[in-house]
TrEMBL record:
Pfam families documented for this protein: TruB_C (PF09142), TruB_C_2 (PF16198), TruB_N (PF01509)
The protein's name in its UniProt record: tRNA pseudouridine synthase B
GO biological process assignments: mRNA pseudouridine synthesis; tRNA pseudouridine synthesis
Active-site residues, Swiss-Prot/TrEMBL: D42
Family, as annotated: Belongs to the pseudouridine synthase TruB family. Type 1 subfamily.
Presence of the UniProt keyword Secreted in the record: no
Domain of life: Bacteria
Record's function text: Responsible for synthesis of pseudouridine from uracil-55 in the psi GC loop of transfer RNAs.
Residues covered by the Pseudouridine synthase II N-terminal domain: 27-187
Domain tRNA pseudouridylate synthase B C-terminal intervals: 188-220
Gene name of the record: truB
Reaction(s) catalysed (UniProt annotation): uridine(55) in tRNA = pseudouridine(55) in tRNA
Length: 298
């Protein structure tokens, strides 16, 4: 089997798998250990997981910073320790009086630049340890709020239902939502905070990531069964699609190969540089009227 070229594989993650399990599967399929992912998806979640192969793993941290989209369902009336359906219940205030109209009226307060405390059971590090590990060890975890941007937040439909908690039935309201947001936004935290706003509590029962930057579900592939060959997007094409691009002459391309500073005004804060043959060389960052190397890929 010929080696899989460096590039990006857009995976439609199945439910029940961790993001690292997807990485392990791609390692076996691609025949290389050099595989990583951009932006963790919880086991319950499905949808777009951007996986880098070979040299493209060094690009993943930059791809994670793009806008992301999600489709989800919030259940109002119950809370869980993880703020989603995988966690143990922690309360059941019910939501018999809540309506879709009331939910929609609150969404502007959760749109735009907001301060959000991540979900305690998350991959955020506290003193070098993952928050979820501390919670599972029985420790109290208090995470700092962080600034995130919710570009759009829409409630599309609602369904009244009942749910069992401690042997009793409570009235709940399941609300379908669509969110576009910045990297670092927790959709589970949006569900938690909206539920707190109404005094009902809330958690996610469904989460599907619909896109990461330019990579959407239409370009995603399932891994069971795995296609052969893997539909890997080449590193040159990915860099040109994801960043503003500058094509260099041969002399400048040689300088970039050594990571040298360039007397070049970039079109954006972070720009992809290419040699005369169209090969992706590096990401360069503005520094005054010059450009300095952020990451060199040759």
């Amino acid at each position: 089997m010929s080696p899989t070229p460096a590039g990006v594989l857009v995976v439609d993650k199945a439910p029940g798998l961790t993001s690292q399990q997807v990485v392990g599967r791609v390692r076996r399929l691609a025949g290389t250990r050099k595989v990583g992912h951009a932006g963790t998806l919880d086991p319950m979640a499905t949808g777009v997981l951007v996986v880098g192969i070979g040299r493209a793993t060094r690009l993943l941290g930059h791809l994670m910073r793009g806008r992301k989209g999600y489709s989800a369902t919030i259940r109002f009336g119950q809370t869980t320790v993880t703020d989603d359906a995988e966690g143990d219940p922690t309360g059941a205030a019910g939501a018999g009086d809540l309506t879709l109209e009331r939910v929609r009226s609150a969404l502007p307060d959760f749109t735009g630049e907001i301060s959000q405390v991540p979900t305690a059971v998350s991959a955020v590090k506290v003193d070098g340890r993952r928050a979820y590990a501390l919670v599972r060890a029985g420790e109290d975890v208090e995470l700092r709020a962080r600034d995130v941007t919710v570009h759009s937040f829409v409630a599309t439909a609602a369904r009244a239902a009942t749910a069992a908690t401690d042997g009793a039935e409570v009235a709940v309201l399941d609300v379908d939502i669509e969110v576009e947001c910045s990297s670092g936004t927790y959709i589970r935290a949006l569900a938690r905070d909206l539920g707190a706003r109404f005094g009902t509590g809330g958690h996610l029962t469904r989460l599907r990531r619909t896109f990461v930057g330019p990579f959407d579900l239409a370009r995603a592939t399932v891994l069971d069964p795995a296609p052969e060959p893997l539909p890997v997007l080449g590193l040159d094409a990915v860099a040109r699609e994801c960043f503003p691009a500058v094509d260099l002459d041969a002399a400048a391309a040689t300088d970039v190969g050594f990571g040298r500073r360039l007397d070049l005004e970039l079109p954006a804060e972070l720009t992809a540089l290419f040699d005369p043959d169209g090969r992706f060389l590096a990401l360069y960052r503005r520094r005054g009227r010059a450009a300095v190397a952020e990451a060199v890929f040759v």
